[in-house]
Amino acid sequence: MKFLKSAKKYAAISSLAALGLFLEPATNANGYERSPSGDIFSLIPTVISEYETTSISQIVADEIAKLKNKPPYINEQTIEKLIYAESWNNPLAVSNKGARGLMQLQRRTWDEFEMPLEGLDYSTHVFHPRENIRVGLEYLSWLDDFCKSHNPQWKHLSNKKRLETVLAAYNWGIGNLSENGWDISQVPRETKKYISDISD
Hints:
This protein is mostly helical. Helix content is about 55%, strand content about 0%.
């Protein structure tokens, strides 16, 4: 199959086999699909084109460098782990709750953080690695600022604890976390594993 041969060509860059593009539909512990479905497959050639010249690691490095006043715990290693936890590095991943792409962005997040910048359409652009990562980092930075200004214990937390708080907000929801007194011990089991997988 011609496309499979093309995919192998880029295995050294992003390992499309690891992305799960050719696996039977399955979900990870958070309910994320390994395989895209429906007309999402039409986006595969475009996504592969992006990987031809730039890896996920390079995109992460490029976009992090653009962040202003980023804390030390929002770094390349952390974001690469977050992307893997969210989507298994599959840029076409779709969750059972409708989150999409490498950093599993919902439409409302995209509309708030991307639309004021370039006004790109969520339905297709959310699957493009660079655009997804750029918006995901904007959202993560906003969460960090929100936690800093609303969590009364923030100034007493270590960088590791601050990262854990931001990750809990990203995975469980900032509303859930704040309503539970910013207490990470109250997060669901799957969120605790998510935090551990990324922060350790």
